[in-house]
């Protein structure tokens, strides 16, 4: 979990800072102190989490493995699409080139046939019969033109043939590349399936090891405490002047924000979980691998794995508002990235110990949890998006 909350310290590095002189300013020294403090809190929280449960480490490793393999699979899919597009363009060139070569060969054949019919003896007889020098000159010019045209056609045929060979070679290369990418895609799909089986086994073992309600309560309470600690650290770490760099107007969009995904709400905000722990966000059920979009413009201040929430992205908006997106299969943004409303920031999954594809979504202002259904568009029969 060595990279878990160190991203919090990186957020200040990722944001633009004013130009400085040779000596560090007081503000810079203060920021360095803040980053050092966050780094200490990060390490402390990480050590505590790993000490509590070996399965946490195993689950984190498996979730991260799935995230990496999913990213590789996405890149391979994009490469396959690009190779297919290049292959189609090359195949489109083949038809006209073949037709052009056929026409040129037919034209040459006609010229050769005409020349053969006339023959060299006929040409000499025609020359010897001419008493008029002007007419003789015209005949020689005409035959010279025919010879040059024939040579020109031969050159065109040679060029067309070379182009055809070049396209065929490029096409063979692209087809070989496509086969290689498809093979790699199949390998990654197999690895991803194996990792998901491993993930489910860890989740089952984890759930079986937490036998009593008291243990579940302690785990849920600690997960919520860790999240609140993380948010408080992020909130304190970001100077006020940097908050003004994000998109404005979050508060004015209450009830108008577009949901980050389409799906069914399976756990509501404020719902009491095992042992009376209150859910400070909501859970939306949807298939794995679906785009998760930021509901508003802002800056990514966290993009990593967190116990209880899996692969999570936190976007900081204006006026202290934050939105949280957990249980992802893959994170597509890094700390410091600027995002626009509707921009894809991750792919849905079941990381963090979930049994099926879902998204944890929460709205915060500082450490205060807010009901997402009050901020996003109306819910219809339990469904959103």
From TrEMBL:
Pfam families: Peptidase_M23 (PF01551)
Residues annotated as domain M23ase beta-sheet core: 280-372
Positions in coiled-coil regions: 210-237
Matching SUPFAM superfamilies: Duplicated hybrid motif (SSF51261)
Domain of life where this protein originates: Bacteria
GO molecular function: metalloendopeptidase activity
Record's keyword terms, sorted: Coiled coil, Signal
Entry-linked InterPro entries: Cell_wall_metabolism_enzyme, Dup_hybrid_motif, M23ase_b-sheet_dom
Signal peptide annotation: 1-21
Protein name, entry field: Membrane-bound metallopeptidase
Organism: Solemya velum gill symbiont
High-level lineage: Bacteria, Pseudomonadati, Pseudomonadota, Gammaproteobacteria, sulfur-oxidizing symbionts
